[in-house]
């Protein structure tokens, strides 16, 4: 099946100090991968710079990535203690000390929220659940109001879904697969309370998933791998857009390099300053590269932090006042329910969710039925809700602390909790069950301190023109989740990918 290990994504020599390149892409997540592939196909050589590692070499345990139940140094980005979203079990804290390393999951802490992000060649595609959801068309106007819905649904969503390798679970197999017992329990409870329940597409290789269940291949999703990476089965960007981009022979990726500054070059183009780091996070070299065009694809947080700093510190003073604004958490909030003993959710749980509960129209919440892959029976149903919150935060430069702050307040999650409760209060009442209080702290019902779906900070048609061109600086573009103003009504990466496809097509035609 050829899915055991991810194909190596980095090729060629790292970028050298003093190099001059036509196009430099900052970051190798969805937006960056789309930009690199389409530019390369148009004949343009592309240099990609990625602060994380290239995840292509197994460790001493034979795995590239650790399991969610046994995080080690590979799990977290430069932390000395894990910070698991489900932080407690039966009330006991489960976080533990780990060696500081350029691990794959960043739990980036701002004053009011922890933002989880992927680090490495492939960005968020390395750590996410792969849920690949196209929003309902009637909701698109609220997601990206300046974008023509017809061109997105006729051309760019289909293009993105095809290139990402999105597929659907076999509904017949689903009915008996032990690893989706938790999802069937989730369905039963949703439907008994009258909610619309739906399968959710995913980029996981569903044939490989079946083979994992049958025991004929090495297990990954069925062996507790997801948030700290998947060794097999997952069609991350490394296996889709990035491998296609590298196959053109025009794309080079330089990992473990962090871009710190972009400023106009005296002779035209831009000077991009970057730090080369080692796996302990120490800076081992600094480099200046001149690029004709620069694509910011460092993710909503990475791109926003860079732009806000560069505007405030005088590198790019002409950026407009929309930079840093319009940031949202996609309304993420998590909860668990305690099932009765006759509603066991299973000791073997696929880490890849396959279903959701849609109460958006009536209650403002879309909830994915999530796994709790502990290997023991927990009688718990876990859910990640995406909610229709209107709260938006702003990034700002904190000169005294030499960092970018985010104005998000934890109390703002109350709106999301209220919306998620339109689903789970009703289910609990119907089933005679209660919320779990032991998963997110001691006696805490809601995980209201995080997001997996950062969006916005350089919003389309505000901080940029309607195709991601940054105001004031020809040749500078934003092409990632920073363009989307805070909410996609569903999981975001298909929309990030489709928008990037739309924008790069215009940029290739008009600017190159
Ligand atoms: P992203 O994929 O974050 O890529 C940005 C890249 O830039 C990263 O590789 C960074 O390391 C790199 N970078 C940042 N700053 C710099 C710098 N200064 N210099 C060099 N490189 C830099 O951005 N979404 C879904 O649709 N479905 C899911 O099932 C899902 N599950 C998720 C589960 C988890 C645990 C997490 C964390 C996220 C999940 N997401 C999911 C969100 C999704 O992965 C995310 O929206 C996209 O990855 C964002 O894509 P971008 O291209 O914006």
TrEMBL record:
Its EC number is 1.1.3.6, 5.3.3.1. Residues 450-500 form the Glucose-methanol-choline oxidoreductase C-terminal domain. GO terms for biological process: cholesterol metabolic process. Signal peptide: none annotated. Its cofactor is FAD. The keyword Protein transport does not apply. GO terms for molecular function: cholesterol oxidase activity; steroid Delta-isomerase activity. Keywords: Cholesterol metabolism, FAD, Flavoprotein, Isomerase, Lipid metabolism, Oxidoreductase, Steroid metabolism, Sterol metabolism. Pathway: Steroid metabolism; cholesterol degradation. This is Cholesterol oxidase. Belongs to the GMC oxidoreductase family. It comes from Nocardioides humilatus.
């Amino acid at each position: 099946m050829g899915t055991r290990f991810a194909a190596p994504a980095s090729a060629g020599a790292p970028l050298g100090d003093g190099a001059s390149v036509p196009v430099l892409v900052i970051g190798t997540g969805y937006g960056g991968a789309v930009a690199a592939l389409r530019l390369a196909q148009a004949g343009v050589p592309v240099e990609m710079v990625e602060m994380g590692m290239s995840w292509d070499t197994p460790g001493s345990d034979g795995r590239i990535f650790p399991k969610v139940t046994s995080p080690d140094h590979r799990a977290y980005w430069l932390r000395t203690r894990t910070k698991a979203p489900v932080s407690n079990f039966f009330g006991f804290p489960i976080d533990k000390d780990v060696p500081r390393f350029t691990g794959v999951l960043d739990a980036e802490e701002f004053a009011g929220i922890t933002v989880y992000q992927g680090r490495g060649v492939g960005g968020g595609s390395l750590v996410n659940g792969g849920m690949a959801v196209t929003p309902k068309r009637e909701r698109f106007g609220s997601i990206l109001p300046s974008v023509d819905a017809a061109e997105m649904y006729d051309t760019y969503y289909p293009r993105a879904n095809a290139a990402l390798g999105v597929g659907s679970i076999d509904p017949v197999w689903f009915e008996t697969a032990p690893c989706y017992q938790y999802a069937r329990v989730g369905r039963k409870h949703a439907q008994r309370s009258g909610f619309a329940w739906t399968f959710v597409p995913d980029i996981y290789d569903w044939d490989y998933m079946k083979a994992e269940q049958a025991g004929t291949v090495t297990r990954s999703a069925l062996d507790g791998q997801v948030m700290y990476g998947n060794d097999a089965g997952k069609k991350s960007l490394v296996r889709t857009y990035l491998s296609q981009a590298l196959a053109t022979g025009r794309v080079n990726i330089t990992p473990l390099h962090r871009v710190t500054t972009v400023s106009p070059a005296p002779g035209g183009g831009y000077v991009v300053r970057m730090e080369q780091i080692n796996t302990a996070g120490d800076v081992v070299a600094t480099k200046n590269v001149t690029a004709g065009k620069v694509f910011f694809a460092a993710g909503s947080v990475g791109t926003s932090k860079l732009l806000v700093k560069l505007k405030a510190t005088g590198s790019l003073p002409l950026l407009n006042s929309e930079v840093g604004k319009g940031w949202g958490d996609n309304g993420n909030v998590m909860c668990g329910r305690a099932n009765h003993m006759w509603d066991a959710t299973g000791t073997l749980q696929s880490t890849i969710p396959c279903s959701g509960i849609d109460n958006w129209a009536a209650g403002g919440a879309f909830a994915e039925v999530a796994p709790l892959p502990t290997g023991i029976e927990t009688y718990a149903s876990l859910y990640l809700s995406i909610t229709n919150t209107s709260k938006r935060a702003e990034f700002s430069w904190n000169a005294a602390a030499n960092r970018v702050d985010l104005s998000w307040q934890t109390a703002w999650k109350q709106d999301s909790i209220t919306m998620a409760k339109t689903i789970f209060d009703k289910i609990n009442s119907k089933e005679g069950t209660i919320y779990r209080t032991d998963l997110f702290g001691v006696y805490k019902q809601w995980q209201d301190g995080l997001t997996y779906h950062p969006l916005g900070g350089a919003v389309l048609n505000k901080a940029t023109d309607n195709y991601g061109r940054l105001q004031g600086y020809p040749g500078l573009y934003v092409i990632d989740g920073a363009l989307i103003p805070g909410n996609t009504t569903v999981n975001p990466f298909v929309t990030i990918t489709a928008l990037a496809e739309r924008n790069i097509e215009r940029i290739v035609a008009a600017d190159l």
